[in-house]
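Figure caption, in words: inputs first, then the predicted bound structure.
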Amino acid sequence: MGATGAGGGGGTMSVAESQKELSVYESMATRFDVAAKKLEIDEGLQTYLRTPNREIIVHIPVARDSGRLDVFDGFRVQHSIARGPCKGGVRYGPRVTLDEIRGLAAEMTWKCAVVNIPFGGAKGGVVCDPEHLSQGELERITRRYTAEILDYIGPERDVPAPDMNTNEQIMAWMMDTYSMHVRHTVTACVTGKPLDLGGSRGRREATGRGVMLVADEALKRFGWQRNHTRVIIQGFGNVGSQAARLMNDAGYKIIGISDINGGIFNSNGIDITALLGHVKANKMVQGFAGGETISNEDILEQDCDVLIPAATESVITSRNAARIKARVLVEGANSPTTPPADDILFDRSVFVIPDILANAGGVTVSYFEWVQDREGYFWLEGMVNERLKHIIVAAFNDVVHYGEKHGVNNRIAAYMLAIDRVAFSLKLRGIYA
Ligand code: NAD
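Bound structure (nicotinamide-adenine-dinucleotide present):
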């Protein structure tokens, strides 16, 4: 059995087992249980630590452009305020579920603790299909969602940010809606805002930059050179495209890229600048002339040195983990690997840099944005990037050394480190009962 003790191994699974494997909350809970047990945290505290503080479900009435009234479901799960206000993204998508938001909210608590920033974790989502919504409809959904959760958010309570299918514009509408209700402009109530509205320099690139920083640290461990390191990236949204651009500029050889419609592969390296131009014009990676067409499933299994899933959850599972050929897996997306897949990758000595470390660059610069908004003084980009590097490199070393010291893989090490920090804060505060 591998390091998570979660079983797996690619045998035949029942439908229930398969659903359990794909559940983001179950994945988080499985890893939490292994880590908390190793830390010998008592049972009552374990239950408290893995349970969210609050789950908010809202139903959002929105007038469509056609005049029809539709009602959208929305969620905000606040997992922990033990170390500071809640922090976490809001995602829009047709298949968003409460289970997924609950799991991702807890992951945010652990992520903030891994990089040692003073936040707890939260996550939000609205079940809607942004591809089939006009800008006006998106704005009305965003404003009503914000109004419905207004009593529970704010700079001292819970600070939302962008995630899948949400962006700077949506954060600007959230900030404005919050500000209209409290009667003054409160830029620190959300992060990931446009630069002209209290956003931080370097925030747009931050998650991709963090991905590159941890990849750089892995390269140092293996004595590899960037220009001989072949990289494949699944997902070409905020995280994937920024990671591709920055890593390409730094000398890495990007050989595969995909988005939801499929991907392209070129073993000689993809011209990223040309691809960015193609995607701007065509809204998708496919159709780009500088590589062969490849499916989203196949791209994960190509021979490469560094694989970066930067799209969505549960893409590396017990079904395909044995065919992953990368030596290093950098999890740009949240929860892209399931616990049974962890075990398979561990047995095959893949060096996994887990999501709560690998994609923590985003929340780290969100923290900087919150600090800058509150002090009303904005940093130069060089300072943002330098401070980000300092935090991410320190967290990488903390996790890897913790894993070596305790004889666990990087994922369990990251969970142990984070849970230990949150449990320590709780111990200092005491539990108000
Ligand atoms: P995004 O909406 O900007 O981009 C998502 C990309 O993934 C798009 O290219 C989309 O086409 C592609 N995609 C979606 N579903 C796919 C599928 N099934 N197969 C292949 N490609 C698919 O989102 P993002 O902000 O880049 O977030 C990507 C991931 O990174 C998510 O898991 C998110 O939670 C995580 N993340 C984002 C940030 C951030 O700062 N944006 C920070 C930390 C973690």
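The two ends are 40 Å apart (CA to CA).
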